[in-house]
From TrEMBL:
<protein>
    <recommendedName>
        <fullName>2-dehydro-3-deoxy-phosphogluconate aldolase</fullName>
        <ecNumber>4.1.2.14</ecNumber>
    </recommendedName>
</protein>
<keyword id="KW-0704">Schiff base</keyword>
<dbReference type="InterPro" id="IPR000887">
    <property type="entry name" value="Aldlse_KDPG_KHG"/>
</dbReference>
<comment type="subunit">
    <text>Homotrimer.</text>
</comment>
<dbReference type="InterPro" id="IPR031338">
    <property type="entry name" value="KDPG/KHG_AS_2"/>
</dbReference>
<dbReference type="InterPro" id="IPR031337">
    <property type="entry name" value="KDPG/KHG_AS_1"/>
</dbReference>
<dbReference type="Pfam" id="PF01081">
    <property type="entry name" value="Aldolase"/>
</dbReference>
<dbReference type="GO" id="GO:0008675">
    <property type="term" value="F:2-dehydro-3-deoxy-phosphogluconate aldolase activity"/>
</dbReference>
<keyword id="KW-0119">Carbohydrate metabolism</keyword>
<comment type="similarity">
    <text>Belongs to the KHG/KDPG aldolase family.</text>
</comment>
<comment type="pathway">
    <text>Carbohydrate acid metabolism; 2-dehydro-3-deoxy-D-gluconate degradation; D-glyceraldehyde 3-phosphate and pyruvate from 2-dehydro-3-deoxy-D-gluconate: step 2/2.</text>
</comment>
<dbReference type="InterPro" id="IPR013785">
    <property type="entry name" value="Aldolase_TIM"/>
</dbReference>
<keyword id="KW-0456">Lyase</keyword>
Length: 215
């Protein structure tokens, strides 16, 4: 039984911290300590990608056992994914691309969505459906900082979370842009650290990520 939480908007998800960690969980038992490690470092909005068989169980475990965290689902590629994410207790969703069917399903389910876009036409489609807080994916591969600067003219009212190729080394450049609210990335949860249960390292990486804004 999933307890419904107070409603959240996509912009709240983006504003909470400078980085949304993109998490891949291979073993459901890792989910709770991993979430606690990120929370200890100041990161609460957690994107658990639906890329592994245990992803939904991981979201469920975090939603149940780590009340300070806000579990979200990444890699939403279909209406079925959106519904499964909600049923597991996800409180926001992130998609690597966008279709109106996904947008509608998330809205109907009350799931704030960060739709993935990489072109002007995709931005227009998402905006037509009422989505103006978007994930730019894959950010570095699709044009990076220069692309976001170019988009700022025609799409000045759209805000982005660039993800894909973003790291501690280039995050500040993105965060300095007027149309970037936060960035997303997998660097806070390196596969070797998760595998080894090196939660202190993950807390340290989270803390460094929090310091990216303003510092
Ligand atoms: O599974 C998804 O839908 C995703 O969210 C894709 C991720 O955003 C990127 O894989 C993160 O890219 P890196 O930070 O470069 O590792």
């Amino acid at each position: 039984m999933v307890t419904r939480q107070p409603s959240l908007a996509a912009v709240d998800v983006m504003r909470d911290a400078p980085v949304i960690p993109v998490i891949v969980v291979d073993d459901a038992a890792q989910a709770v300590p991993l979430a606690r490690a990120l929370v200890a470092g100041g990161i609460r909005m957690l994107e658990v990608t639906l890329r592994t068989p245990v992803a939904l169980a991981a979201i469920e475990a975090i939603a149940r056992d780590v009340p300070e965290a806000v579990a979200g689902a990444g890699t939403i590629r279909s209406v079925a994914d959106a519904r499964a994410a909600v049923a597991a207790g996800a409180r926001f969703g992130v998609s690597p691309g966008y279709t109106s069917a996904i947008g509608r399903a998330c809205r109907d389910a009350g799931l704030p969505l960060l739709p993935g876009v990489a072109t002007g036409s995709e931005i227009l489609l998402a905006a037509e459906d009422g989505y103006t807080e978007l994930k730019f994916f894959p950010a570095v591969q699709a044009g990076g900082v220069a692309m976001l600067k170019a988009w700022h003219g025609p799409f000045h009212d759209v805000r982005f979370c660039p993800t894909g190729g973003v790291s501690a080394a280039n995050a500040r450049e993105f965060l300095a842009l007027p149309n970037v609210v936060c960035v997303g990335g997998s660097w806070l949860t390196p596969a070797d650290a998760v595998k080894a249960g090196d939660w202190d390292r993950i807390t340290r990486l989270a803390r460094e990520a929090v310091a990216l804004r303003g510092g």
